[in-house]
Specification:
Distance between the termini of chain A: 57 Å
Shape of chain B: elongated
Strand content of chain A: 15-25%
Largest sheet of chain A: 11 strands, mixed
Shape of chain A: globular
Number of domains of chain B: 1
Mean pLDDT of chain A: 91
Oligomer: heterodimer
Largest interface: A-B, 14 and 9 residues
Radius of gyration of chain B: 16 Å
CATH architecture of the largest domain in chain A: 3-Layer(aba) Sandwich
Low-confidence stretches of chain B: none
Strand content of chain B: under 5%
Helix content of chain B: 55-70%
Number of helices of chain B: 2
Helix content of chain A: 25-40%
Structural class of chain A: alpha/beta
Radius of gyration of chain A: 22 Å
Number of strands of chain A: 19
Chain lengths: ~450, ~70
């Protein structure tokens, strides 16, 4: 592979055997470091009888206990405030504060030292370099620049690569679009949901992003992006749209390369295990869907070792033509937390977005609501249609949508059209699925 | 005052020059790998700050403005 397409051709094309040796050594060092420095891991590993020297093969890695966000939350309640027993460095070394979005409960506080933050930035450099960002790009970051980590690391990685970075914080959507036009930004960082929202607002302003703006690369993060949504963004922006995956707890650990055929796992900096959903111990085979368990292999003030992300992903059976030896994920399939049983059927809200974005370009926005009437679960999808859609067309869309959702989920949905611009719009993560059964 | 002796400043300056030379050399042999070059550039950026933080010659007393 051409050196020009890799941030680090040494690690990204490393033979698998060598890469796995590197991972195993780094994993053992992380465990050793955590036992020496983090009271939380000391307790967990002592209880499990784990010693660093016990870890000699990749199979030994599986003996090390998994940790969950819930356990980290509990560990954070101890001293020192805010980070409790998780912390592996003196508080005087901390320079960065972030937190998780809190979509699954109380937010988790995440912190970095100056050095560990630089490793986070380095990891994101792999991501955006593979997506084609270069020092010729002027990158607009459409992100509120708040306590959420999201594009903070993207900002600094773009800067490190040599891009000119335009911080689009605390601006209205209209102001952001005007600024992108004014400075002739060539790349954009945003959530997929907000990428679609900006299209709507640009159109209200009489701007066609594909023609009137110069954005040609879009880096998305913050929420799962179905392929249909990515393709819709590409079409409406006239740009190459890339997905990336990461979390505040572990860092930016996966990225799409210019082939846009799945997500490479950044295996020189993270050990990614995909475990069978039922047993949570067997490694899945290519083509199967598993739960993502991650270890951050570089030193971090906030160590995450065999951290159960509770995200589901499909491991690809393909090798990427780009030449990277880092394995590929075909897709992210949502969170195990979001898997819910409706009428006895296992359901993930992501499937609704996939159906709508893939087949119904006339639907501008949507929301799914589950309620319980008596003992019966009821599913309703509210849709906002393009104003050009006639009542007759709506009937046809409704019929096809009910059929497509039934085919995809094996569930029966009601569909209701609501007036344009009445459903919520999101600047960051979307919340289009409302399970009102839990509120009873 | 010991820390600011001429010998001490010269010793630090020499070490900073070693950092700079090593970073330049890493860039020279990298063959254009961006991860190597940009991280070496970051080291050089800090080395330049070190250079200005540790002037090799004690500076002349500045004259009052005006």
């Amino acid at each position: 592979m051409g050196i020009a397409r890799c941030w680090n051709v040494i690690t990204e094309t490393m033979p698998r055997e060598q890469l796995e040796r590197l991972q195993l050594n780094a994993f053992r060092k992380r465990v050793e470091w955590a036992i020496d420095n983090s009271p939380f891991y000391q307790k967990v590993y002592r209880q499990a009888g784990i010693e660093p020297d016990d870890i000699q093969t990749m199979d030994d890695v599986r003996r090390v206990p998994l940790v969950s966000k819930e356990e980290l939350r509990v560990a954070q309640q101890a001293e020192p405030y805010l980070y409790g027993e998780m912390l592996g460095v003196p508080v005087t070394e901390l320079t960065a504060y972030h937190q998780t979005a809190g979509t699954t409960g109380k937010p988790l506080y995440v912190t970095d030292t100056y050095a560990s933050w630089q490793s986070m930035v380095e990891a994101f450099c792999y991501n955006i370099y593979a997506m084609g960002l270069r020092n010729t790009d002027r990158v607009f970051v459409a992100f509120p620049y708040n306590v959420f980590i999201a594009f903070w690391v993207g900002h600094y990685a773009a800067e490190k690569i040599g891009c000119e970075v335009i911080p689009g914080g605390t601006m209205s959507t209209r102001a952001r679009i005007s600024k992108m036009q004014e400075v002739r930004a060539t790349a954009l960082m945003c959530t997929p949901t907000y990428g679609l929202r900006m299209i709507e607002v640009a159109q209200e302003m009489g701007i066609d992003p594909a023609k009137d703006l110069q954005i040609r690369k879009i880096i998305c993060a913050g929420e799962p992006m179905p392929e249909a949504t990515r393709l819709k963004l590409e079409q409406l922006w006239g740009a190459n749209v890339y997905d990336h995956i990461g979390t505040a707890e572990v860092g930016p650990w996966g990225y799409m390369c210019d082939q846009k055929k799945g997500l490479h796992m950044l295996e020189s900096m993270f050990l990614v295990e995909l475990l069978d959903v039922e047993t949570m111990s067997r490694l899945i085979q290519p083509g199967e869907v598993g739960v993502i368990v991650i270890t951050t292999l570089f030193p971090r003030s906030f160590p995450t070792i065999r951290y159960n992300l509770k995200d589901l992903a499909q491991l690809s059976a393909r090798e990427c033509p780009c030449g990277r030896t880092f394995r590929l994920l075909d897709s992210i399939r949502g969170r195990t937390d979001n898997l819910t049983k409706i009428k006895g059927v296992l359901f993930t809200p992501l499937s609704i977005e996939e159906v709508i974005r893939d087949n119904f370009s006339q639907i501008a926005e949507f929301e799914t609501i589950v309620t319980k009437v008596g003992t019966q679960d009821n599913l309703l999808v509210k849709i906002e249609l393009d104003p050009s859609v006639s009542p007759q067309d709506f009937l046809d869309i409704r019929r096809r949508l009910v059929e497509a959702l039934k085919f995809r989920t094996n569930l029966t949905f009601s569909v209701e059209a609501v007036p344009s611009q009445t459903l919520p719009r999101y600047e960051f993560k979307s919340a289009r699925f409302k399970d009102l059964r839990k509120e009873r | 005052m010991e820390l600011r002796s001429k010998q001490h400043l010269e010793a630090m300056t020499k070490q900073i020059e070693i950092i700079e030379t090593a970073a330049e050399e890493v860039k020279r042999v990298s063959g254009g790998i961006p991860a190597i070059d940009r991280n070496a550039d970051a080291i050089l950026a800090f080395a330049h700050i070190l250079e200005s933080a540790v002037p090799s010659q004690p500076s002349e007393p500045s004259l009052p403005c005006g």
